Amino acid sequence: MKRNKKIKFVFPLVAIVVPSLLFAPQAISGGFGAEIFCTMRDGGNDHESSWEAAYTYMKKQKGGFFKISPKQAAAQIVETVVREREEFSYCVKYLEKLNPNRKLERDMRKESERIEREKADNEEKRQRLQRELEETDQDYSEETFDRYSY
User: Fold this and answer.
1) Which of 1, 81, 96, 113, CA to CA, is 20 to 30 A from 15?
2) 37 touches 74 (CB < 8 A)
3) Is the backbone of residue 62 left (phi > 0), alpha (psi -120 to 50) or beta?
4) Is 31:6 a contact under the CB 8 Å cutoff?
5) 66 phi/psi in degrees, rounded to 5
6) How far is 108 from 111, CA to CA, in rounded Å?
7) pLDDT digits 0-9 by tens, 32-91
8) Residue range 113-136, pLDDT digits in tens
9) Long-range CB contact pairs, 59-64, < 8 A, 24+
10) For the residues of 89-126, what is the DSSP string, one character each?
């Protein structure tokens, strides 16, 4: 009886795990994703449209609850191109945009944030000075002074 319970527990587990190990849709989707990306780029398409087509295909092919992230998809494309160098020799020059310089992007973002902060500070200073000027103008009366009148 105990043996029967073990079989009831193990059999569904094996039925779920074994097919996912035998059929690797992720590896297939990564290879074909690389083919889509490289073919489109070589055909003259821009990076964004080629990347979107390859990434959409890879997301659609990966089954299960969790979908592939953009970083994982880019890594799979790079891995496929490097692994199959002879087949994708024309595609190596396009890999740069898949993994951009993250430090450069971060520095550029910080610089743009700094510029925006400076603009906001300058605008705030300008408004404060404008208010002070208006307050000072209100302190003076409308009378004019004639310095030669005794």
Assistant:
1) 1
2) no
3) beta
4) no
5) -95, 135
6) 5
7) 888 999 989 889 999 889 989 999 898 888 777 778 888 888 889 989 988 988 888 888
8) 999 999 999 999 999 999 988 887
9) 61/25, 61/26, 61/28, 61/29, 61/32, 61/33, 62/25, 62/26, 62/29, 63/25
10) GGGGGGGGGTS--HHHHHHHHHHHHHHHHHHHHHHHHH
Percent of the chain past pLDDT 70, that is, above it, reads: 69
- On average, the pLDDT of the chain sits at 78
Residue with tokens 């300008």: 126
> Which token pair is 32?
């074909």
Domain extent listing, the chain: 2-97, 101-137
* 104 has a pLDDT exceeding 50: yes
Burial class of 54 by CB neighbour count within 10 A (0 to 12, 13 to 18, 19+): buried
Distance CA 66, CA 101 (A): 27
Q: Are 50 and 41 in contact (CB under 8 A)?
A: yes
